[in-house]
Amino acid sequence: MKHLWIRFGCFLIGYNYSILRNCSEAAFKSVKKFTAAMLIVCILWFFIGFTFAHRYLSLGLPGCLLAGTLSTVIIVQVEKQIVLSINPSRLLLIFRGCLAFMMSILGAVIIDQILFEKDIEIEKISYVSEKVDKILPSKTEELRRQIAAIDTVINQKETEKESYVEEITKRPTISVTSSSSAVRTVPVHAVTSAGKDTTILKRVNEGSVSTILVPNPKIALTYALDSTIGAMRQQCNQKENELLHMKPALEKEMKESTGFLDELTIMARMLSASHVAMAFWFLWILFFLFIEMLVLFSKMGDRANDYEKAVLHHMNIQMRRLDALGRGFK
How far apart (Å, rounded) are the C-alpha atoms in residues 42 and 47? Predict the structure, then answer.
């Protein structure tokens, strides 16, 4: 368990502990310094990744932990590009500085949206109200057209019903004529061929016509029209209720569906309207920028220690060995 922190530092920054343990205290101090700087950055970006996944991606605890871990792994790999460079080139330093600047802005934006949450909620009220005012006319116009169409149909149905009622009032019943036929057997006097009188039975068809009074069939049609008009009036009332509560419903829907870009826009409006908020946000950017540049500045301010010289020495020995092997095969 000896040098446990040093072993962890070697794992984090990519140093070889087998080589480091034979080096001086200066190399150990460099490992501790780089480990502390990288831990600060890792903790910060783990929190940023975790919060972003929870707030904007709506992930559960496992998803948020995974997002925070991925952010930490990415940061560690980025920092290793500087820590493991023995003589970092100017292009690498410029690239890391630009990356640190962008990461500081991203980190400040995400953290500030958490710190300014209450202020953003207040500013969101006017922001959402403005967006609702833009889309409300088209929504209400469509509902009004639907209500007008339903009213037109209701008026047509009521006119049709009135004509039926008027006709029913004049003629509550109508005459219906029905006919029927029956076959009857009647005796008929006849003379046979022998000259005798006889009586035979003959089938005779008899028809009859009768007239009856029945209720006017338009009465049943009025019941169907009443049902249709009632359903359409209920539908019209429902749409009028939607029209009445259209603005509150839209505001509630938009507040619930506000995303990262909407909150970013709200925060930009809030910062542009308040010099205090702008100054505080600028301080956060500087804070993140200096933390991101901490490892870079530590690397640039250090001289080459014996660990790096040992690595270079091992590399030179290996290269001479490979060169000797190459000459031996010729």
Answer: 9
Q: What are phi and psi of 56, to 5 degrees?
A: -110, -25
Burial bucket for residue 269 (CB in 10 Å: 0-12, 13-18, 19+): middle
The domain ranges of the chain are 4-122+260-328, 176-215
- Continuous segment of H or E residues that includes residue 271: helix 260-273
DSSP code string of 61-127: HHHHHHHHHHHHHHHHHHHHHHHT-SS--HHHHHHHHHHHHHHHHHHHHHHHHHHTHHHHHHHHHHH
Residue 220 CB partners (closer than 8 Å, separation 6+): none
Give dist(CA 271, CA 275) in Å, integer: 7
CA–CA separation, 56 and 59 (whole Å)? 8
What DSSP designation does 214 have? E
User: H or E segment at 41?
Assistant: helix 25-55
Residue 41, amino acid:
V
Question: 183: part of which helix (H) or strand (E)?
Answer: strand 173-191
CB 46 within 8 A of CB 72: yes
Place of tokens 């949206």: 113
pLDDT (tens digit, 9 = 90+) per residue, 253-310?
777 666 777 777 888 888 788 788 888 888 888 888 888 888 877 777 667 777 878 8
Q: Which of 293, 309, 313, 302 is nearest to 29 (CA)?
A: 302
pLDDT digits (tens, 9 = 90+) for 37-60: 889 889 988 988 898 888 878 788
